[in-house]
Give the backbone structure.
Amino acid sequence: MNSIRYRDEDLKLKDGTLLKSRIWSPQGNGPWPVLLMRQPYGREIASTITYAHPSWWASKGYLVVIQDVRGQGGSEGDFSGFKQEASDTSQTHDWVRSLPECNGLLGTYGFSYQGLTQLIAEEGTTPPDCIIPAMTGLSENEHWSCEGGAFWWHLGIGWGLQLAAQKAKREKNWTAWHEIRESLNSKKYLYDGHNLLKKNDPEGMAYKWLNLSCTKTPQWKTHEPLDSWLKKPLLLIGGWWDPHLKGILDIFEKSKKAGGNPKLLIGPATHLQWWEGAQHTQLDFFDSHLKENKEIHIPQINLWNLTTKSWELSVQNKTPTWNLSSEGLASISHLEGCLVPNSDLKADSEVNLVHDPWRPIPAIGGHLSDTAGEANRFKLDIRPDVAVFTSEPILNDLRLEGIPTLFLETKCDRESFDLFVALSIIPSEVENTATQLSTGVLRIANCDRGIKSARQIRLQPILATFKEGDRLRISLSGSGWPAIGINPGQSEYLCEGPSPNCLVTTISLLLLNSKLKFESLISS
């Protein structure tokens, strides 16, 4: 790779704005197929937090173009988020194909923001020859900022402040930059971050999304890829502990509906920490579509099993359902509550769960917390403010693939409350261990106090095999801090960090019609 060279070039858009790109060239004279990434974090970093350096891709025979989007890095203009990207993407693709070193073939790659820039373009734009969007989504509500109506507190505030710091640096506002950096380093952002966003980037995406999440009739934006793009070869990459996984599944279904034949890969990854082999899998996909005589088979759906630690094909088998059962002590005794499989005998009982905002239940592991990934939640489950329901030991190996979904009825003594739910495996012959596999949240606002209502909480999708002797567990609490803000129980106050406005809240879990089931990973 010593022979890899790069240069910077400008693209002048129709409105006169200059977009800066860095171009890495392989050895030789070309022409070559192009790999393009459009991103807002500076072309120098080129998403190397998750991807191999552009020089590596260039060493494999690709012209690599990393572009700073409008208003970021070295590019001119004002950064306005996703809404600017369709037109800029279309013009960039035309420009890339016009480069003298380009042989006319174009592939795109990138995750998160860089994933969405691959999917939106103006009507009539020629699609890339192949696309690899990773860890992204189309709905600014469900895939980018909220889950179950609750704003992603740690993730949303933290990401918004990263963009606000970039804005401050661009404006040479060093006071703001240092204030933001100190807040992130000290974790004060969990308490004052939303005020810093209001002060330093009030027009930024994160602050707008936070405000929308608090609005009674929010007008959320969902981006729509062109069908012609969704029909092209598409490799979608997700992680079991990535907050955008539901967005990746949504894109997969949209591609199939449009007549495409997308590939789906879900591995043991958080948003920023991927698995060994991810680079070569993407290279194989590019080689198979951008180079001659490179036929490489990639399964349509390839999933990492969280418990066997191996790759598997998707098998949409019917799975059992479970009912929640307790004599009322599931929140004070972590061994009292039960998950009863396929039971016609439903327990007409009530478990009272008290949420104390002074000592909120922390969110650990999973896809939304500040410690994303696998976690042992045993010490949380033995707290008296967590309601725990555990199955008997599994008699035969049980493979669970899909979206865990919990149905139950609740009532509450406040007008607003949260339900934070975790699904875990209790391994046989291992003490003091509850390996958390999935989490989910539902925020209930403006509810009638003391009135029974049906609730449905969808958790993060999983694939896991329970071995003989393992047990399945569901845990419920009234908070998941700092993954989501503390619900104060009063609609006039923001769900943020613990504050004097937060009220002790009693949530009654009514078990008569409770049910845990697994919905299909792919609905089509």
About this structure: Residues 153-170 form the longest helix (18 residues).
